[in-house]
């Protein structure tokens, strides 16, 4: 496959939310690695690495990630030193990243509220969190936050730059699909 075709394929596979904010996330990271939480096939990590970021790709199952890289090996080989896969079960394992150790976090289509305090702790001040929940198709509205819940969970540790909620699921359930970009505040701004 020609190089430009691979680049186009990666661009199209990347979440539009990631494409929109990628350059700002990388700039705010100041050379620190960016976490791709629940990276799946690495579609977003590849795009960030192509732009020059070092990306720690975490997921409980890395075979889709490795298969995607293998399929594009001619293009990916020069990027491989910037793609750092790490097997982590985000539900069962202890969070492995220390305070201020990452410059950005992207979390696309995997929402686990228990991770938010870990994100706040691991993200360096000024770094960006880009989070997009699943869209709310079928019964997945059951795993989504209620209206305003995610924003309220972020305000102590983050300045919210962009926040879009869309009501999903049956009437009266009050579930929302969310896309958010937030900037980590300095640690001394925290009350706890």
Structural class: alpha/beta
- Beta content: 25-35%
Task: Tally the structural domains.
Answer: 1
Number of strands: 7
CATH class: Alpha Beta
- What does the largest sheet look like? 7 strands, mixed
- Provide a count of the helices: 7
Radius of gyration: 17 Å
Q: Helix-strand pattern, N to C?
A: HHEHEHHEEHEHEE
* Helical fraction: 25-40%
Distance between the termini: 53 Å
User: Uncertain spans, ≥5 residues at pLDDT below 50?
Assistant: none
CATH homology superfamily: Vaccinia Virus protein VP39
Shape descriptor reads globular
Can you put this structure into words, describing what you see?
- This protein is α/β, with parallel strands linked by helices and 192 residues long.
- It has one domain (3-189): Rossmann fold (3-Layer(aba) Sandwich).
- The chain is 31% helix and 27% strand.
- The protein has helices at residues 3-13, 16-29, 43-50, 63-71, 73-76, 116-122, 149-154; strands spanning 34-37, 55-59, 83-87, 102-108, 123-132, 158-168, 175-184.
- Strands 3-2-1-4-5-7-6 form a 7-stranded mixed β-sheet.
- Strand 6 and strand 7 (175-184) form a beta hairpin.
- The chain is globular and about 50 Å long.
- The mean pLDDT is 90.
Characteristics of this structure?
7-stranded mixed β-sheet; single chain; Rossmann fold; globular; alpha/beta; 192 residues; 31% helix
How is the topology of this model organized?
Elements: H1 3-13, H2 16-29, E1 34-37, H3 43-50, E2 55-59, H4 63-71, H5 73-76, E3 83-87, E4 102-108, H6 116-122, E5 123-132, H7 149-154, E6 158-168, E7 175-184
């Amino acid at each position: 496959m020609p190089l430009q075709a691979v680049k186009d394929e990666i661009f199209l596979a990347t979440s539009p939310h990631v494409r929109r904010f990628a350059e700002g996330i990388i700039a705010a990271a100041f050379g620190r690695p960016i976490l791709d939480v629940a990276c799946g096939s690495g579609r977003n990590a590849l795009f960030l690495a192509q732009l020059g970021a070092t990306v720690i790709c975490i997921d409980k199952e890395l075979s889709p990630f490795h298969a995607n890289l293998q399929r594009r090996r001619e293009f990916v080989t020069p990027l491989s030193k910037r793609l750092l896969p790490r097997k982590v079960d985000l539900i069962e394992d202890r969070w492995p990243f220390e305070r201020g150790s990452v410059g950005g976090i992207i979390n696309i289509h995997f929402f686990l509220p228990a991770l938010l305090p870990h994100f706040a702790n691991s993200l360096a001040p000024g770094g960006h969190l880009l989070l997009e929940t699943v869209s709310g198709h079928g019964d997945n509205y059951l795993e989504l936050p209620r209206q305003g819940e995610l924003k309220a969970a972020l305000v102590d540790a983050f300045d919210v730059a962009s926040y879009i909620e869309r009501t999903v699921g049956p009437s009266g359930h009050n579930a929302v699909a969310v896309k958010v970009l937030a900037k980590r505040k300095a640690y001394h701004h925290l009350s706890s």
